[in-house]
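Project channel, design review

CF: Before we commit to the Parasedimentitalea denitrificans constructs, I'd like one complete example in the thread so the newer folks can see what an input/output pair looks like. Taking MFS transporter.
RD: sounds good, go ahead.
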Amino acid sequence: MHGAMISLFSTRNYRLLFSASAISNLGDGVSALAFPWLATLITRDPMLIALVAFATRLPWLLFSIPAGVWTDRVDRRRLMVQADMVRFLLTAGVISVILSAPDFPIENGTPYILALCALAFLLGSAEVVRDNAAQTVLPAVVAKHQLEQANGQIWSIEQIMGSFVGPPLAGFLIAYAVPAPFLLDAITFAGAAALVWCMRLSPASAPATPRRSWAAEARDGIHWLWGHKEILRLAIMLGCMNAMGIMALTILPLFGQELLGLNAAQYGLLITAEAAGGVAGGLICPAIAARLGVRRSLMLALPLMMVGWGMIGLVPNVWIVAPALFVGMFAGLMWNVVTVSYRQRRIPDDLLGRVNSLYRFFGWGMLPLGALLGGWIVSAAEPELGREMALRLPYLIAACGMGIIWIYALLKLRL
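CF: and here is what came back for MFS transporter:
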């Protein structure tokens, strides 16, 4: 493994891509805490808070397929740079909204929530383009036999920066000054864009496909995916898993404040437990996958995710929630490392952007619906079950949902 790491980091393009992922995900980690926490400063209504998460994830449902066609038409490196610069400008817009607000909490915060939703939607749209291009470009940067190692290292650094460093840093920054985490977020996007701009890729990494209609080019990806049922099943399973996960995570800021009694800094530290699971998963899971194989690795990941959500819902205690988040994220990284490498190895390069985007349409398109579902469940259950049980319910439902997905995989998944 040590030799593989040396060979990867000896490649200039990989070093730049790895560094850009680290910096960009530091910003993502900061905003991952700062956005929902800002929403809770504006309102305590779970539906309005869920609306911000819905707006952030809705672009995955709306724009995944067009983004895939776009990725296969243009220079993927340039596309990543442009998307990060758009995110830089939009984050500056979030800072403007905060500075225009009166002291928190806001008596009538609905207009500010709606403005936050609009900016979150645009930021999410840029993220769809950037992330699809970034995942598509990796096979042009490393050799195919290095994909598990490269994905594991990139997932690990993304978890370190996005969940291990970013959230606690955001907690301290937002306690110091509400705009501070968003200022740091903007700087990281600009830094990531500069690093990607310095990459030099061969023309094969930006294929010049014959220009036809977007619909015709999208159909090529649809036909390929439809003809490879195992990858289609993985995409649908991922969509269900993500819907369960975002349903629970959307409520986590309220869960942390009201049931665990955490302030912003303490909540950020709690999220580091999840990040530690991601880091461990990114480093260890390539070896697990090599030993167990693709299918058995996934059959291990699914019940671990079920156990993680169930622990949180059954025992709302910080000393239980922290290891549960660790277990769930470790399992999630195992799923990601195995399935992403599986796709990158099998999808033809000239279709990689379109098929990846279709995969994400199924896999990530359920995120906005899951976010709204989380807010609705709490709002609907609170009058009958009380606030505490209503906040625990999404985690119990997520655990049951993961159990059903696990049974489906045991019966249907053949890799």
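RD: helpful, thanks. The radius of gyration is 20 Å.
CF: Confidence is low (pLDDT under 50) at residues 1-5, 204-209.
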